[in-house]
Design brief:
4 helices; four-stranded mixed beta sheet; single chain; 160 residues; binds zinc ion; Sufe protein. Chain: A
């Protein structure tokens, strides 16, 4: 690894840890219009999302959960990116994040709202950890589509 790359990795680690420690969107909204619960058994990540809507707009989003730095930081980034957006806009952001993480799309095509999630680029090399990053986004997508959702990230192999 070149020296510059190592510095970049350090920088991204700091960004992830800042989001991991942030309390800004932690908690549970009562009452709420949208709820989603998801687990990623491979890693032990668990997330519960509650959100309120104002008409077509996702007004507030909070999440509660535990798990690895990647799953929790990704949830905090998501909350920051989607609050105040219309539901179709939110679903587009979820899709764009999946393009970036799972389908390894180019960073320069990321919507401005997802700028901070570029810190997760290094995670893309590790399929099991991509599931950690995607968990809350998949839970939110299902929650918006169904109102209430239970979601489980499945392993790539049986028994994992
Ligand atoms: Zn994880």
């Amino acid at each position: 690894m070149a020296e510059g790359d190592a510095e970049l990795a350090d920088l991204y680690r700091d960004v992830l840890l800042d989001y991991y420690r942030s309390r800004a969107h932690k908690g549970k909204l009562e009452p709420h219009d949208v709820r989603g619960h998801g687990v990623s058994p491979i890693c032990g990540d668990e997330i519960e999302i509650t959100a309120t809507r104002q008409g077509d707009r996702l007004d507030k989003l909070r999440f509660d959960g535990h798990g690895c730095v990647i799953s929790q930081a990704s949830s905090a980034m998501m909350a920051e990116a989607v609050e105040g957006k219309s539901v179709p806009e939110v679903l587009k952001l979820v899709e764009a994040f999946g393009d970036f993480m799972v389908r390894r799309g180019p960073m320069d095509q990321m919507p401005a709202e997802l700028e901070e999630t570029k810190a997760l680029e290094g995670v893309r090399k590790f399929p099991a950890r991509v599931k950690c990053a995607m968990l809350s986004w998949n839970v939110l997508r299902l929650g918006l589509q169904q109102g209430a959702a239970e979601y489980q990230e499945l392993g790539d192999r049986e028994g994992t």
